[in-house]
Design brief:
Structural class: alpha/beta
Helix content: 25-40%
Distance between the termini: 89 Å
Strand order of the largest sheet: 25-21-26-28-38-37-36-33-34
Number of strands: 38
Oligomer: single chain
Strand content: 25-35%
Shape: elongated
Radius of gyration: 33 Å
């Protein structure tokens, strides 16, 4: 008995010490078989003890009731719905239960005819109709009840979502919602605004034009790309900190209309969703505001059950982790870090990775914050709150950096690139698309798949806006950032200044490549966009030089949209660009036409040396090799337990699209998987291409004197 008492004391202590709504996070649904029943159930939920006043509106004439919510809230009244010429029984029964002393009917006889009014008078004799010749006069007549307020919200009278989204806030602020047209202001709207000194327009210029906006008293606009974003921006604008929100469909409006008064009564926000999935803007709001309790308005026909169940983000039980807002920066720009920190405090070390791993800046004892995420964060991004910002100093040289974030228990690396504002002789391309393709954080990478009817279906979209443990610069396995580190170290050790670019930089600014005498494609540059391919093609045509120190490069055609990358491994058409996806060489743009070699699913190659086949070529000058000599016998890549071999992992070979003037320099001696082809050719544009066709080449270059001399010969030839 004593133990039971202790247990219950401990349980209630937890309740008092924690945020109550966080402990009891839940999703409730107020539904019904139709909009009449939903309205009745909203009324029962919020006015269980009855109401002195009730509002009644036409179940189809949303415009009449659009501006009624603030007034209904002012009178602490629910809004019920009826047919225009018939009072349905469920509404009639609810009016009897509420036992009001007064009723307001919204709209003229075209919305609710006198037959319905006469039937209502049998229940309650005191009825007042707020009507008008159109929705704008109805809005004006409602606004008369707010003569004491000098502010108003203005929304398009023909586009309902904006007015619905603002309804709970307008109600709480005792301000009317006044309707207007998109491109001109109706006469009654002008009247309604006469004594208002401040207006807030809800919706973008497509809802209320700039011309109308400028004619309003002291206007301010809350817009957005769509109705969902407008609702999100309303919450942001008014900094509503409630842990609760009401959620309604953004496509049918009766549920939101009747529910908005209850939302105002409970001091909750109102967000809009799609029936079958949550909009990004809704998820952002839930994450930002820490919303943990939801009231869903309407049945499963309005908002599907799977959508309702997914409103609450997943509890993040990971140790410290984070991501940056971009993958590359120039000095002077600000890097924003988004960090999940389960401990009370964490610290940051900024480190530059090259020949030496140099600590360049430290910050200590930053307050930590737990950050949750949705189950589709792999595609939509983590949506976390910004944790820390830092302006990159002017003395940071171009290269690979990481923000090492750590607490007393764990550490995590957020890898990013610093670019030069002005070009150097050599550009090194960081394969950031490939880093993200392998990132499984949030549940899926571009390699995640499921089998249906003996066919593999791959996940097609991932986001850059999420932690990426695969892109850590530490470790020796070496096919992503940690592998590219070896080539950077070699360049610095041998005193070749370089500037780094990311895949996204080339995609967005294709002409940047032309600033450089030589471009190094590094390690595992697998995922390219068409814009990147064309940029490299144009660079070569203009006389540029390329060192392809990579394997499995320019393989999957990718599409980029904002912070997302899409890959159609089934060869379908990208939703972002409408272009055909799949493998580059299967879509008329073979990588071998540029690099001379390409990967053809020849299997995993355990690292092995190359064997020289053309020792008289100038690339071998000073190496002392002969035909048959083996080069690249050891390396730093610990692939499958291997301790060396410059030809390995995934390896590339020549094919029919390789330029005919290529020279075979060496071939990988791999016994498992195909050996890499090392080639050189003079491009017709005037430059040259040196290709190694191997992921593990960089790990051997870092420790092999013969490979070092060869790459020096190539660079010196390109840079002369």
């Amino acid at each position: 008995m004593y133990k039971k008492i202790l247990y219950f004391c401990f349980f209630f202590l937890i309740l008092f010490c924690c945020d109550f709504k966080s402990v009891f996070a839940e999703t409730l649904r107020i539904s019904g078989k139709d909009r009449f029943e939903v309205a009745v159930n909203v009324s029962k939920n919020g006015w269980s003890e009855g109401s002195d006043t009730v509002f009644v509106a036409n179940y189809l004439a949303f415009a009449d009731a659009l501006s009624a919510a603030p007034l209904a809230y002012k009178f602490n009244s629910p809004i019920l719905l009826t047919r225009p010429n018939e009072l349905n029984q469920i509404t009639k029964n609810e009016i009897k239960r509420l036992s009001p002393s007064k009723m307001y009917i919204i709209g003229g006889t075209g919305s609710i005819n006198e037959n319905v009014v006469n039937e209502l008078k049998k229940i309650i004799p005191s009825i007042e109709r707020i009507n008008g010749v159109d929705r704008y006069e109805v809005s004006y007549n409602i606004s008369k009840h707010f003569s004491e307020s000098n502010t108003a919200f203005v929304a398009n009278g023909l586009k309902f979502p904006d007015a619905l989204s603002i309804a709970p806030y307008a109600a709480q602020m005792n301000s009317p919602i006044i309707l207007t047209k998109e491109k001109n202001i109706p006469e009654f709207t002008v009247k309604a605004l006469k004594r208002k000194s401040k207006t807030t327009v809800i919706g973008g210029p497509g809802s209320v034009s700039d011309a109308v906006y400028r004619k309003l008293p002291n206007p301010k606009r809350i817009g957005g790309a769509d109705r969902f974003e407008v609702a999100r921006n309303i919450v942001r604008e008014f900094d509503l900190k409630s842990h609760s929100t009401f959620v309604a469909t953004g496509f049918t409006f009766a549920d939101a209309l009747t529910g908005s008064v209850l939302a105002a009564k409970e001091k909750a926000s109102l967000l809009l969703t799609r029936p079958d999935r949550l909009p990004l803007s809704l998820k952002q709001t839930v994450i930002e505001k820490g919303i943990s309790n939801f009231t869903v308005l309407g049945g499963t026909g309005s908002i599907q059950e799977i959508t309702a169940r997914s409103l609450l983000p997943q509890d993040n039980k990971h140790p410290i982790e984070g991501y940056s807002n971009m993958k590359s920066y120039t000095t002077g720009q600000t890097i924003d870090l988004f960090i999940h920190s389960p401990e009370a405090n964490y610290s940051i070390d900024f480190i530059r990775f090259g020949q030496q791993n140099n600590l360049v800046h430290s910050i200590r004892n930053i307050p930590g914050k737990k950050q949750n995420y949705y189950s589709d964060a792999f595609a939509e991004g983590a949506l976390w709150e910004k944790s820390y910002s830092y302006q990159i100093p002017s003395n940071w040289s171009s290269g690979m950096y990481a923000a090492k974030i750590f607490d007393d228990k764990n550490e995590f690396y957020i890898t990013f690139i610093v670019k030069d504002k002005y070009s150097k002789n050599i550009a090194v391309l960081a394969s950031t698309n490939t880093w993200e393709a392998y990132n499984n954080w949030g549940g899926k990478s571009l390699y995640s798949h499921e089998r249906k009817n003996n066919k593999l279906y791959y996940n097609e979209i991932v986001s850059f806006q999420r932690p990426n443990p695969e892109a850590t610069p530490i470790g020796n396995e070496g096919h992503l950032a940690n592998g590219e580190r070896y080539i950077l170290s070699w360049l610095e050790e041998n005193r070749y200044p370089y500037s780094m670019l990311t895949d996204m930089d080339v995609h967005q600014q294709p002409n940047r490549l032309k600033e450089f005498n030589a471009v190094v494609v590094s390690t595992h540059s697998e995922y390219w966009t068409t814009a990147m391919y064309k940029a490299l093609q144009a660079y070569l045509n203009s006389g540029g030089n390329v060192l392809y120190l990579s394997g499995n490069g320019i393989y999957w055609r990718s599409a980029v949209n904002g912070q997302q990358i899409e890959v159609k491994k089934d060869g379908g058409y990208h939703s972002f660009t409408k272009e055909k996806g799949g493998l580059f060489y299967q879509t008329g743009t073979p990588e071998t036409a540029l690099m001379g070699v390409g990967y053809r699913s020849t299997g995993f190659s355990v690292p092995a040396p190359y064997q020289v086949v053309n020792s008289s070529h100038w690339i071998f000058k000073g190496t002392g090799v002969k035909n048959g000599s083996r080069i690249g016998t050891r390396g730093l890549n610990t692939v499958k337990g291997s301790t060396g071999g410059a030809s390995g992992w995934e390896t590339d070979q020549v094919d029919r699209d390789t330029p005919k003037n290529y020279v075979m320099l060496a071939k990988g001696t791999n016994t498992t998987g195909a050996g890499a082809h090392m080639i050189y050719y003079d491009h017709k544009g005037g430059g040259g291409v040196f290709s190694t066709g191997s992921i593990t080449f960089g790990g051997s270059l870092a420790v092999d004197n013969q490979l070092t001399q060869m790459v020096k010969n190539v660079l010196n030839h390109f840079l002369k």
